[in-house]
Amino acid sequence: MSAAPCPRLFEAEALRDGRLAGAERASFERHVAMCSACSREVQTLETLADALRAVSHGAADELHVRRERTRLLAAFDRNLIAPARRLVPRRLLWSGVAAMLFVSLLGLWRLRPATLPATVPSAVVHADAAAVWSDRTEGNRERIVLDRGALWIHVDHSSGQGPLVVELPDGDLEDIGTTFAVSAEGGHTTRVAVQEGRVELRLRGRSPLIVGPGETWVPDVPAPAACASAAVPYPEPSASVSTSQLPRPFSTPGPSAAAPNPAADFRAAMDALDRGDNHEAATKFGRFLKEYPRDPRAEDAAYSRVIALQRCGDTNGMKDSAREYLRHYPVGFRHAEVDALSR
Amino acid sequence: MITRRAANHSAERTGGGQTTDPEILRQLAAGEIGALGELYDRYQEAVRRFVVRATADAEDADDLVQATFLAAAKSAERYDGRPLCRPWLIGIAAQLLRRRRQSFGRSLAVLSSLRVRATASDPRAAIQARSDLERALVRLSEAKRLTLLMAEVEGLSCAEIAAALEIPIGTVWTRLHAARRELRRAMEASGGS
Known about the structure:
With 343 residues, chain A is of the alpha+beta class. Chain A has eleven helices and nine strands. Chain A has helices at residues 11-16, 22-34, 36-54, 62-78, 82-85, 90-110, 262-274, 278-291, 298-312, 315-328, 335-342; strands at residues 117-120, 123-127, 132-138, 141-155, 164-168, 171-185, 188-203, 209-211, 216-217. In chain A, strands 1, 2, 3, 4, 5, 6, 7, 8 and 9 form a nine-stranded mixed sheet that branches. In chain A, a hairpin with a 2-residue loop joins strand 3 and strand 4 (141-155). The longest helix of chain A has 21 residues, at 90-110. In chain B, helix 4 packs across helix 8 and helix 8 packs across helix 9. At the A-B interface, helix 3, helix 4, helix 7 and helix 9 of A face helix 2, helix 3, helix 4, helix 6 and helix 7 of B.
């Protein structure tokens, strides 16, 4: 017959991942000194990390390193773009070709004359009424400069033109066989939604990012609006917002300040949690779950809400939200941890 | 348009004689090929180690390391100025790995070709345990494996990983938890600790 596991066992991983700070961290460290189960868990996690670090990485010899260095510098001297594109899987290229053919056929139906079309060579651009933008050609490369507003762009590569680059207030975007929409407001890119093909989004201070077909990128920045109410009940799942859904081209102007922005709302809640404002974090996560129950981050939000309430010292609220998590995510990533908290 | 200067342009040095990472990135953004060489000398080992562990394929790794440094050169002007650029480079490598959309599931034959460092105490047990771990590592989803390696091997914080992979920090936590759970189960199933 074995003893019940320590209810604080999950905190060993929380400590390792930097989720415990201040008094919580000190409390758990004192607990570890007295609890053999938690001490063993801490040691097990460290042993696992040691084992991962010991996995061979086949260190290259000096000659190989020098050869690779020469190859790199030669590639840099030749061209900065071509080598990166070698990594594109061939089947994706074929898919892109097929998608472009499909889009070309659909294009005649979709591109309606009443939608203020403005064309640059090899690209069709539709702008919303508030968009401020311009275009120019540099060599075989098209450049579109977007100051603000929303553009829907279809690039036709069959004309043999070079890649199209959209200059954004805070970076740029390069198409890779593409139909996409891009929006900017207040000196920042606010949305990139790709319908066909892919684009490479390069924003200052961020790693380059590929946005693929059916994907939508929105920035992870805190929402400007503050959270108002106190307790927000956990929502029932319902058909609601999908971040991957593309806007219908030409249908509405670009995003406004009141437009739903789940990425910003989630980031605002995480920021509150990070700075220790746990009550606000719990409220914002609750609001997020209510407004975006189908969002891919909903499970993260549900879990983080449990943690925020635990940090608030709201034991009953934490248990209720933990049980809600278990009900909505019976095989969730954090099931064992949340199950312990729900008791 | 890439502006290039003379390849032998001398790098700006700090008082200690060591060019800082932000300075190297600034020179690289200006098209100085010598800066790319300096960056490579400084971080090729770390980037290669990360890529090899993530792919279990040293030959593939060479191309990915090359692509990582070329992508860094392309993005150098957007570097955010952090004192050390290793997390940024690891993030670029991780993005390239994700982009590749190629199965990382390798046969056990490939895994067995990985060299294993022996230990003095119990080499056979250690080799067996490590092989089990490597097998389990390869079986992880790409997302979990990259996140785990960035955290546990490369020492990136969860916030750095979230920024590099452009995912919420909560997702980093859940991936780490799931990855560790799967590895531990695999190790327990194989009789390891």
